[in-house]
Amino acid sequence: MARKSRGKQRARSPFPSQQPWQRLVNPYSPIEVLDEEELNAIHEASMEILENVGVEFLSERALTILENSGAIIDRDNNLVRMDRGLVLESISNAPSQFTLHARNPQRYVLIGDNHICFDSVGGPAYVSDLDQGRRAGNFNDFRKFICLIQSLDVLHMCGGIPVVPVDLDPATRHLDCIYTTITHIDKVWHTTGLGRQRMSDAIDMLCIVRNQTRDEIKTEPGIFTTINCNSPRRFDGPMLDGLMEAVEHGQAVTITPFTLSGAMSPTTLAGSLVQQNVEALAGIAFAQIVSPGSPCIYGAFTSNVDMKSGAPAFGTPEYTQACLASGQIARYYGMPYRSSNTNTSNVADAQAVYESSMSLWGSIMGHSNLLHHAAGWLEGGLTASFEKTIIDAEMLQMMGAFLKPFKVTNDTLSVETISQVEPGGHFFGTKQTLDLYEEAFYSPLLSDWRNFETWSDSGAQTATERANILWKNILDNYEQPHIDPATDEHLRVFVDRRKKEERQH
Questions:
Q1: pLDDT of amino acid 12
Q2: 8 Å CB contact between 374 and 341
């Protein structure tokens, strides 16, 4: 009976007590899986491919810019070969650290050095929860995700379109998504890099929010985008157009190859890392040629496929090793580093958690500066899950607490407190315990620490079932951040005008 009583006293409110929004710094030394000779070997192999084999750029404008910079162009095959001098000189212009500015000035984030930022899942075509199962992305669920991202303080940024609203016009849905994001969150946000016009619209809307010109926002970037290489060794036209538009206006780009070992890259992890490095350096070098000093992030996404089926596999031991190695490679070139919280599970179950745990540890100890898709990713990135978002938020909060070093001082060594307690006694009633008990340890968002009897008597809910309740409670308590009515009206007018233009086009 006594144990049950203590459990009831520990029962938490249905609405979680979150850790406060905070910038995180990784105080630990990174785990380095490559020795100096191996790291140099990857570099040399990468330079050989960049110089002698080349990377395909499917953009006439990009080819002309690269040709004028000294690259060797094979126009019949759209191949670009760059000598190491051009590559290394170009990437040296990229800042090792930069700031992304949010609508709320208090929520700016630092990218680079030992800083680490978490953002939400972006890009899935499907959405799922325990109530309705898996379904096609839609605007109603998109809005719910945006509100959830704003409400979860562990998320520093919105990682893009959390689920694609396929019920909206493909030509204009980016406008609805950007408008909803801007007006419902006050954090830094990600925009699609697919095409010049979509990026241009995002930049114009950023200018409206900031009440600044395009020239003025160059010095204070406020949005970031992901530029994917269509591995192996191909940058397509729309991605290059989006990249150029972004860096010409001072906004941040993450150059991310999609290297799946055994499919889009060599079956050996070393070979995949070489190809990843080739593609990332080619994209970053091009960005710096277009706009020297523009903020860039070295993106890594190397994983493997299931050799039995050919399906992508994430959260694998190989993915973890690649995260650690990619961090080393990014630091070799003095670049901020992006990784992801990945898994291949189809539902928010134990597999989703242990694969995500592998991803998180590899990313954190590889000193990732931007953890993309940090919350909500399922099914290899095809599905955004409400329950997985809450489960991930718990894992991220725990990682955030882990990143705070404990203090060793005369007070924390607790010699006097230890001396006050008789052998075989307890510390519940000591002054130290009474002074510190409220904030001494991490308080969970989702975990249930009650004893079995109390947990069973209250419904025996699993973590996934509790996550289902939590995300709905969080949305019920969502508070929209203030936006100036005149700014809101200006955004609405812009969106309406651009939709009309697209319909006429």
A1: 42
A2: yes
- Where is 297: in which H helix or E strand? strand 296-299
Within-domain flag for 116:
yes
Give the Cα separation of 83 and 64 in Å (integer): 17
Interstrand relation of 223-229 and 252-257 (parallel, antiparallel or unpaired): parallel
340 forms bridges with which residues in the sheet? 372
Q: In what order do the strands lie in the sheet with 312-313?
A: 260-261, 303-305, 312-313
Is the pLDDT assigned to residue 176 strictly greater than 70?
A: yes
Count of domains in the chain? 1
Q: Are 191 and 204 in contact (CB under 8 A)?
A: no
pLDDT tens for 101-119 read 999 999 999 999 999 999 9
Taking residues 426-431, what's their average pLDDT? 95
pTM: 0.94
Backbone angles phi, psi at 151, to 5 degrees: -75, -25
The reply to whether 415 falls in a domain is: no
Task: Give helix then strand counts, H and E, for the chain.
Answer: 19, 22
How does residue 15 score in pLDDT terms, banded at 50, 70 and 90? Answer: low
Count Cβ atoms below 10 Å from residue 421 Cβ, excluding itself.
14
Burial of 195 (0-12, 13-18, 19+ CB in 10 A): middle
In CATH, what number is assigned to the domain containing residue 82?
A: 3.20.20.480
Tokens of 388: 């997985």
Tell me what the mean pLDDT of segment 487-492 comes to: 98
Residue 428 resides in a domain: no
Bridge partners of 99, per DSSP, are 110
Give the structural domain span for 193: 19-405+442-505
